[in-house]
């Protein structure tokens, strides 16, 4: 699997994991975040490698479907870019203002 | 139904309507946004008043469940408050800066 695919799945998982079943969550976490192989997950859960593979493929589709409908991840990326531009504009044109800086930081932390 | 309930359902609907079925969407929109009565919706769709009522009650639960898991609406409220505070801090302490103002406005428009 590619690094782009891994990064995307880990990102979508951050936003939508609460909508998954416990099994879907566990498999995705082991495979994408903890880099377990399909065989290792199968051994751990005492199921076939194919069952793990099918579950993960289905979960990937579910995560992409949620992103298509809610676009939480793409909104997050756009918002982060805007906040960085705001910080840059402030840093280049104004004296440091802790009140403003803390408020802007708080925006980035809302989802976390 | 109370105005608080109506406002909350309209707000949750804004964030999660894409996760509902077409029927759930239609009933919720007619009942909460367009102020149709259960009887009027029932007549429009040629189903019983009870069927409309049950569908709406179930959809309300589904919306609250999504909010419990994803808190998009409560995050939005927190973010709006922060953006308003940032605007206030800028207005009270700095000369108008269109670049900054546009970037901050853009943050508010990401979800829309």
Structure description:
The structure is a homodimer of 112-residue chains. Chain A is mainly α and 112 residues long. Chain A folds into 2 domains: 3-70, Arc Repressor Mutant, subunit A (Orthogonal Bundle); 74-111. Chain A has helices at residues 3-16, 22-33, 38-45, 49-70, 72-93, 98-109. In chain A, helix 1 packs antiparallel against helix 2 (22-33). The longest helix of chain A is centred in the middle third of the chain and has 22 residues, at 49-70. At the A-B interface, helix 4, helix 5 and helix 6 of A face helix 4, helix 5 and helix 6 of B.
Number of helical elements of chain A? 6
Mean pLDDT value of chain A: 95
Total number of distinct structural domains of chain A? 2
* CATH topology grouping of the largest domain in chain A: Arc Repressor Mutant, subunit A
Largest interface: A-B, 28 and 28 residues
- Give the overall shape of chain A: elongated
Q: Order of helices and strands of chain A, N to C?
A: HHHHHH
What class, by secondary structure content of chain A? Answer: mainly alpha
CATH class descriptor of the largest domain in chain A: Mainly Alpha
Alpha-carbon distance between the two ends of chain A: 27 Å
What's the topology here?
The structure is a homodimer of 112-residue chains.
Chain A: H1 3-16, H2 22-33, H3 38-45, H4 49-70, H5 72-93, H6 98-109
Helix pairs in contact in A: 1-2, 1-4, 2-4, 3-4, 5-6
């Amino acid at each position: 699997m590619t690094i782009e695919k891994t990064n995307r799945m880990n990102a979508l998982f951050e936003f939508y994991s609460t909508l998954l079943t416990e099994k879907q969550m566990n498999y995705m976490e082991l495979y994408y975040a903890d880099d377990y192989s399909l065989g290792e997950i199968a051994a751990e859960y005492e199921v076939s490698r194919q069952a793990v593979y099918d579950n993960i493929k289905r979960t990937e589709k579910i995560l992409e479907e949620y992103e298509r409908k809610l676009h939480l991840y793409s909104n997050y990326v756009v918002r982060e870019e805007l906040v960085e531009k705001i910080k840059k504009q402030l840093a280049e044109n104004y004296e440091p203002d802790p009140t403003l800086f803390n408020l802007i930081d708080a925006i980035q932390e809302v989802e976390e």
